[in-house]
Write a structure and sequence with these properties.
alpha+beta, 2 domains, 358 residues, Elongation Factor Tu (Ef-tu), domain 3
């Protein structure tokens, strides 16, 4: 009896020694990236290019949607761009005409100013002549009174005086006319400058219209490109749920593409098992489907929350009767073995994981 107890103690010691330094769980499965294939526009399916479980590459066309309406939208946007660009050319032409008018008005104002200088000189000359003829008139009038000059001589001097006075009035009148012309020229220059400013604003608005039309065209082309639904990445077609002639809407799941190149394990260890578990530790993986094959891996990361926290209705331990339940922490484990074509791995497969913690 004593020997039996010793044997049991030895066996128990051996078992615990063999189990020490390793944590094991069969609550684990393979995971991969699964990308949904969804339309971004509302349209009718014209053609479906793939079937379930077919391998595809990123960018391959999966589904073709009716693009008639979207082609018309692109054509209308192209017309809008052409019209907007024509308006820019018209605005620039108007601006050029206005600039020419400003130059012409400025030149006319300069010419009038030059004439004003000449007219003022003419007035001064007329005043001098009036002064001279007035003095001659007064002198000959005195001589006529003294009978020292003839009436004919006096009349000639008088005529010269009256002609000089008339010429002065004409020169002064010309000054007034030129002042009016100068005012009119200044008004014309101001008006044409305002037209230039208005034309500049018109050009700016026309150019903004071009940009808006180009953005609308880009948006229309983008919508047209959505008529060809392509694969978001390399993988295998899964859950295909679309047929030719079907009317699809934005966000409707049509199929999924499961990544067949990047596979990892999510192992749900008990919270009491991760005390000595660290990133980078070696892991041994057994896939239920391949009992004769062992895979190697390493601990990649730990979830920040337990699995129950992500459930639809997480437990609220602050209410009702509290029952303590050991929680599980999802641990991501990456394969370190090279991919073996004889043992294809698929997402969702059940596996058993052992992590070497020491």
């Amino acid at each position: 009896m004593k020997q039996l107890h010793q044997l049991i103690l030895i066996a128990t010691t051996i078992v615990f020694a063999g189990c020490s330094g390793k944590e094991k769980t069969d609550n684990a499965q393979l995971e991969t990236n699964i990308s949904p294939v969804i339309p971004k526009i509302n349209s009718t399916v014209v053609k479906v290019y793939v079937e379930d479980n077919q391998a595809v590459k990123e960018g391959d066309t999966l589904v073709l949607l009716d693009d008639a309406d979207y082609k018309i939208a692109v054509q209308q946007a192209e017309i809008a761009v052409a019209v907007a660009m024509q308006n820019v050319q018209l605005s620039r032409s108007t601006r050029g005409t206005a600039s020419s008018s400003v130059s012409s008005a400025a030149a006319n104002s300069s010419a009038v100013a030059a004439n004003m200088s000449s007219a003022k000189a003419g007035v001064e000359a007329a005043k001098v002549r009036v002064d001279v003829t007035t003095k001659n008139y007064q002198r000959f009038k005195n001589l006529l009174d003294q009978k020292s000059a003839t009436q004919q001589q006096f009349d000639g001097i008088k005529g010269e005086k009256e002609a000089a006075e008339a010429q002065l009035k004409m020169a002064e009148s010309q000054i007034g006319s030129l002042n009016e012309q100068i005012a009119a020229s200044k008004y014309q220059v101001a008006t044409t400058q305002t037209t230039v400013i208005t034309s500049d604003n018109g050009i700016g608005l026309a150019e903004l219209s071009v940009r808006q039309a180009e953005n609308s065209l880009a948006a229309a082309k983008l919508q047209l490109s959505y008529c060809a639904i392509t694969a978001p990445g390399n993988g295998i077609i899964s859950k295909k749920n679309v047929q030719k002639g079907q009317v699809v809407s934005i966000g409707q799941p049509l199929m999924a593409v499961a990544d067949n190149q990047t596979i990892w394990v999510v192992a749900n260890f008990k919270e009491t098992q991760i005390e000595n578990m660290r990133v980078g530790q070696e892991a041994f993986i057994t896939v239920d489907a391949y009992s004769d094959k062992d895979f190697k891996g390493k601990v990649a990361s730990f979830s920040q929350a337990t699995g129950s926290k992500f459930s639809l209705l997480p437990a609220d331990n602050a209410t009702g009767n509290f029952v303590k339940v050991t929680q599980r922490i999802p641990v991501k484990i990456e394969f370190t073995d090279a991919e073996d074509a004889n043992y294809p791995l698929r997402a969702g497969m059940s596996v058993t994981v052992k992590v070497k913690t020491k």
